[in-house]
Amino acid sequence: xxxxxMEGLNTFTAEVxxxxxxxxxxxxxxxxxxxxxxxxxxxxxxxxxxEIVAGADLIPGKAAKFFEKHGVEGVKTDYANxxxxxxxxxxxxxxxxxxxxNRQHAPVAIHALNAGLNVLLEKPFTxxxxxxxxxxxxxxxxxxxxxxxxxxxxxxxxxxxxxxxRSGELGKIYYxxxxxxxxxxxxxxxxxxxxxxxxAGLGALADIGCYSLDMVxxxxxxxxxxxxxxxxxxxxxxxxxxxxxxxxxxxxxxxKFGVDDFAAAFIRLEGDIILDFRIxxxxxxxxxxxxxxxxTKGGLRIPSTECWNGSVGGPMKIYHEVAGSxxxxxxxxxxxxxxxxxxxxxxxxxxxxxxxxxxVPSSQIIYNQAILxxxxxxxxxxxxxxxxxxxx
Length: 392
Fold this sequence. Notes:
Layout: H1 4-19, E1 26-31, H2 35-45, E2 50-56, H3 62-69, H4 82-87, E3 95-98, H5 105-114, E4 118-122, H6 129-142, E5 146-149, H7 156-167, E6 173-181, H8 204-219, E7 225-233, H9 250-256, E8 262-269, E9 273-280, E10 291-295, E11 298-302, E12 316-322, E13 325-331, H10 340-354, H11 362-381, E14 385-386
Parallel strand pairs: 1-2, 1-3, 3-4, 4-5, 6-9
Antiparallel strand pairs: 6-10, 7-8, 7-14, 8-9, 10-11, 11-12, 12-13
Helix pairs in contact: 2-10, 5-6, 6-11, 7-8, 8-11
């Protein structure tokens, strides 16, 4: 049977080769060789103007095995940490992909930016708002490209949401309900880095919550968040009887679980907009609800997905009035040829080569991170908190 994924990759590679000048190759390193790095390397290998020259992971030998698995030879991996790799001037690096666990995002990105390297930083931006601010200060000082790994916004259906809002068809936006979740989906098949506080810092909030926030905030122009009243819990993750765990690992995973598996918040945004948010890794429901954007002229319903997959769950629908009658307009699903991860990598490389702005700029995602940080703080304090973003 033919490998359909390889057919798609070959088609994408052929299309890229027609558009990209491969005469100047960008020298790239991958820092953190866990499962998300698999997607990075596959997309890099589809680019005709990339040379992968180095990799590092905190687990000895993991980086070497990672590149061997992907059939990439001649890659330097004898580094104890990211700092050793970044300090190796013989690599003549142009850029790095930061694919570490959450709590290492900020220090690794700062090391790379301070060394004058362009950075593609996996989501979430960071764990705390203060960390994100420090990364942005290093970015500003370096003058290099820093792009955050929010590939779902590159989906044509996601872009359509923004087009609808900007068209004025909905009028003034005043209320948004968004979120997403899984009935049983705590991500332990990849080990415990997602669920331990020492590595992840945040759970469902950071893993899929940041995507849900970006979907609506990007569509409405990323207004500044003002206040947050947040809640988070971990009833499922800490339960040794949770059926989503491997039977032989339930006690271990439950004891190590130190993040959130559910969160909700009521967020006030500039422009008199209210954002009602909920996100879940595990719950006794199939979905916490569709995303809805309410405006004074119309409302947009965006069907939920069973598990966040970077797009919408079905045709969107606008509820509005035409000639005094209430009508609904269905927005058909747009089918894409390109893979979102390939587009993420390509857009980052184009920004590096052409000196153009980051495709997913930190100047936007800082607001996303401020909300995640605000939800966590509010939940811990048991009250509404004000969001204050320091000067950068």
